[in-house]
Structure formats: structure tokens, C-alpha cells
Amino acid sequence: MPSLIDIRRRVRATKSTQQITKAMKMVSSSKLRRAQERIVRSRPYAQEMLRVFNSLATRVESSAHPLLMDDPHAARTLLVVISADRGLCGSFNTNVIKTTAQYITEHPTDPGREVALALVGRKGRDFFQRRGFDVKYEEVGLFQNVKWAHAQAIANTCIKEFLGPDVSSVYLVYNEFRSVISQRVVIERLLPIPKLDEAQGRPADAAAKAGVDHLFEPSPMELLNALLPFHVAVQVNRALLESSAAEHAARMTAMDAATRNAKEMVDRLTLYMNKVRQAAITREIIEIVAGAQAT
């Protein structure tokens, strides 16, 4: 049976842990509000822009711009994996890593289909680098303050790799923020820009007839050269903001659960400590009584 000193030491340590987890929950709650405001403001614009360019890709010849063209001869897929820089956020990082690993397993790295990685976030980078994956790009430390420049740098890397001779498609893998207690890992094609029939599961002819035709002034190539890279950066920025909000929500939920668990542990240890102390007092009384009777 442990001594009272050991039990009191465990109670103090658990209370200290409870204070830390409670403070981390409050910090994450504050950051979540700001991140949620940012994603609520940016999500409608990014989603509408994606819808417009999906429709545009359906109506424009693929040869009009390289970012619209499928290259069936290239053997490599680039996965942009967005994880967190820190842990203590439940299964947030684990879910992203498991989804990426499952995708790689389903598309084995053979001569017909290879997978390269662009890693955003320290947790994903550390996991995949230690296992010898082909890493084309890495970025850590940006979730302290997600900026438009970060999205542009990642988008430029994706475009550069896609326009190269090896990469035929680029996908985003990230946690989508749905609510404080719910995040969903999604795999979303970034390049080539999907058409309406691919993005919404509609027949190609029906997608082509939907909406209105586009008139270009000046030429389609000039407009697409200016707009398509911006569109890619907008979608990457949305994924970064989604992941940032989902991370804060996951950490707040995890720290709330840890705080409750610490409180329950303190209650159990306190009850056990009282029982031990009561047993010690009872034993001492018995020894005194026994000594008195002996005399």
C-alpha cells in the first residue's frame, strides 16, 4: 500500500496537470473563435470560385491552358498533406496520416503509379520523412499565423510540379472543419482543375449545358494565365484555414476531456487517500488500546 506522502504527491501532480490542460483549453477556445471567423469569411468565396472554375473547365478546351490538361502519361501524383505542428489535439494528426498512408497503399509506388508528397506541418513531415517517402516540399511553423503568402508559396510549388514532366495530378489532404466536435479528413483534387461532371458526379453533356457560356475578352489564354494560379492559391488558402480551425477545435476538445479526466483522478486519489489515512488512524488506535490492555 502506498504511503500518504506518495498519494499526496500524485494528487498535487494531477492537479497541476489539470490546471495546464484547462489553460490550454481556454487558449485553444480563444484561437478557435478567430480561426472560425476567418474560415467563415473565406469559405463562401473559395467555394463559389471553385464552382465557377469547375464550370469553366467543362466549357473550355483542355488545351486552352496547361492547368486544365490531364496528362495520362505522367506517372506521379503529388499529395499535399496538411497536418499540425504540435500534438495534444486528439486524433487530428493521426487521421490525416492514416488517410494519406491508405491512399499510398491503394496507389502503390510502382512504375505505373508513383506518389510524391508535399508536407505542411511538423507532425506529418516527421512521420513521412522518417519512413523514406519522396518529399518534394515541406513547410513547418506557418500555423502560428496563416498568411496569404504561405498559400501562394505552396500553390506555386504545386503548379511548378504539375507543369513539370513527372506529375499528372495534385491532391490536397486536410482536416475539414465542420463543428467544434467534428472534423473530417478530405482528399480533394487541386490540379488539373476538375470539371463539373467530375466534381459533382454529373454527366458531361448535362454539365456542359448547365448555366451560361463564357465569353473571353481578351483571349482565354491571357485570362486563364492570370486567374488560374490565383484560383489554386485560393483553394490552398482555404485548406490551410480549414485545417487551422479544425486543429484548434480538436485541441480544445482533447484538453477538455483531459481536464475532466484529471478531475476524476483527483477525486479517486483523494478518496483513496482518505481511506488510507483512516486505516492508519484505526491501526494506531488499535495499537494504543492493545498496549493499554497489556499493561
Structure description:
- With 295 residues, the protein is an alpha/beta fold.
- It folds into 2 domains: 4-22 and 256-294, ATP synthase, gamma subunit, helix hairpin domain (Helix Hairpins, Orthogonal Bundle), CATH 1.10.287.80; 27-253, ATP synthase, F1 complex, gamma subunit (Pyruvate Kinase, Chain: A, domain 1), CATH 3.40.1380.
- It has helices spanning 4-59, 92-106, 122-130, 148-163, 196-200, 204-209, 220-294; strands at 76-82, 114-120, 135-139, 167-179, 182-191.
- The protein has a 5-stranded mixed beta sheet, with helices on both faces.
- The two termini are 31 Å apart.
- Mean pLDDT is 84; it is low at 201-209.
What is the SS-derived class? alpha/beta
Q: What is the count of β-strands?
A: 5
Proportion of residues in extended strands: 5-15%
Read across the widest sheet, the strand sequence of neighbours is 3-2-1-4-5
Q: Would you state the CATH class of the largest domain?
A: Alpha Beta
- Specify the helix fraction band: 55-70%
- Spans where pLDDT lies below 50 across 5 or more residues: 201-209
- Our count of domains comes out at 2
Q: For this entry, what is the oligomeric state of its chains?
A: single chain
CATH topology of the largest domain: Pyruvate Kinase, Chain: A, domain 1
